[in-house]
C-alpha cells in the first residue's frame, strides 16, 4: 500500500510540475501577441486587441534569423563532435578491458557533477592563447567537451551487446575500425539519436559560454538576444515575450514529434535491473 501511495504522490507532483510549466508557456505565448502599452497598463487583464506587430518587428527589424543561424551553426558543429568523441570513447570503454579503464570511467562520471563554470578561467586563457575568442569555433569546442552523459549511455549500450556480433565481424576479416563503423555504431543509432535530441536542447539554450566568448553582435546566439531584451525589461517587455516564444517553439516541436524515439534511446542505453 505504501508503494502505491508513493507512486501516486510522484505522479501528482509530476502533473503539477507539467501543469505549471504549460501554464507559463501558454501565458508567455498569450502575452507575445499584445502591445507593450497594453502589457504595462493591463498586465493580468483582458487585452484590448491581439496583434502580430511584435513578431513582424522581431523577424524584420531585429535580425532574428541571424541569431537563429548562429545558434544553428554552433548546434550542428557541437553535436557532430559530441557524437564522434563520445561514441569512440564509449566503444573502447564498453568493449575492451585495459589498465586504467575503471579510472577513466570514473573520470567521465565525475564530469556529470561539475559544470563548465568551475574551470572557466583556464578555459578562457586557453581559448585566448589559441586566438579563438569571438568565434563560433570556441563555443563549439567548449560545448562539445561535455560528453560525460553521452559516454555513460553509450558505454552501457556497447557493453551489453552480444560478443558474437564482434567475433563474427572479426572472423569476416573486418578491422577494428570497420567493426565499429559498420556493425557497432549503426546498432547504437537509437541511443545516439536520443543523445542528439537531449544535447540539442542544452546547446540551443546555452547562455553562459556564448556570453563570455562571443563579443560581437554579429556572432551572438538566441539566448543572448533574449538577454538583451530582459536586461531592460520595462522598455522591451513585448520583444522579450515574442523572442522567448520564437526560441522555445522549435525545441517543443522537436520534443513532441520525437518523444518516443528519445525514450527508446534512453532505455536502450540504460541499465536493466
UniProtKB/TrEMBL annotation:
Q: Which GO terms describe its cellular component?
A: plasma membrane
| Subcellular compartments | Cell membrane
Q: Which residues form the ABC transmembrane type-1 domain?
A: 68-258
Report how it sits in the membrane: Multi-pass membrane protein
Q: Which domain of life is it from?
A: Bacteria
The GO biological-process annotations, alphabetized, read as: transmembrane transport
Q: Which family does it belong to?
A: Belongs to the binding-protein-dependent transport system permease family.
This chain belongs to the protein called: Carbohydrate ABC transporter permease
Organism annotation:
Paenibacillus sabuli
Amino acid at each position: 500500500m505504501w508503494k502505491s501511495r508513493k507512486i501516486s504522490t510522484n505522479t501528482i507532483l509530476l502533473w503539477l510540475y507539467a501543469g505549471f510549466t504549460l501554464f507559463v508557456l501558454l501565458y508567455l505565448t498569450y502575452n507575445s501577441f499584445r502591445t507593450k502599452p497594453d502589457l504595462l497598463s493591463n498586465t493580468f487583464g483582458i487585452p484590448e486587441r491581439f496583434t502580430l506587430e511584435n513578431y513582424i518587428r522581431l523577424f524584420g527589424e531585429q535580425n532574428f534569423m541571424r541569431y537563429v543561424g548562429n545558434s544553428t551553426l554552433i548546434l550542428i558543429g557541437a553535436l557532430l563532435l559530441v557524437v564522434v568523441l563520445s561514441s569512440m570513447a564509449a566503444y573502447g570503454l564498453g568493449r575492451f578491458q585495459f589498465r586504467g579503464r575503471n579510472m577513466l570511467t570514473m573520470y567521465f562520471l565525475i564530469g556529470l557533477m561539475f559544470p563548465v563554470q568551475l574551470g572557466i578561467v583556464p578555459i578562457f586563457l586557453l581559448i585566448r592563447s589559441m586566438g579563438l575568442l569571438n568565434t563560433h569555433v570556441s563555443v563549439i569546442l567548449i560545448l562539445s567537451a561535455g560528453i560525460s552523459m553521452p559516454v555513460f549511455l553509450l558505454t552501457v549500450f556497447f557493453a551489453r551487446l552480444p560478443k558474437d556480433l564482434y567475433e563474427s565481424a572479426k572472423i569476416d576479416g573486418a578491422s577494428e575500425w570497420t567493426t565499429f563503423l559498420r556493425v557497432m555504431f549503426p546498432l547504437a543509432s537509437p541511443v545516439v539519436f536520443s543523445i542528439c535530441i537531449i544535447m540539442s536542447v542544452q546547446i540551443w539554450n546555452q547562455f553562459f559560454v556564448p556570453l563570455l566568448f562571443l563579443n560581437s553582435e554579429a556572432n551572438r546566439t538566441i539566448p543572448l538576444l533574449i538577454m538583451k531584451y530582459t536586461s531592460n525589461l520595462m522598455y522591451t517587455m513585448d520583444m522579450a515575450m515574442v523572442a522567448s516564444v520564437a526560441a522555445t517553439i522549435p525545441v517543443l516541436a522537436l520534443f513532441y514529434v520525437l518523444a518516443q524515439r528519445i525514450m527508446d534511446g534512453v532505455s536502450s542505453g540504460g541499465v536493466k535491473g
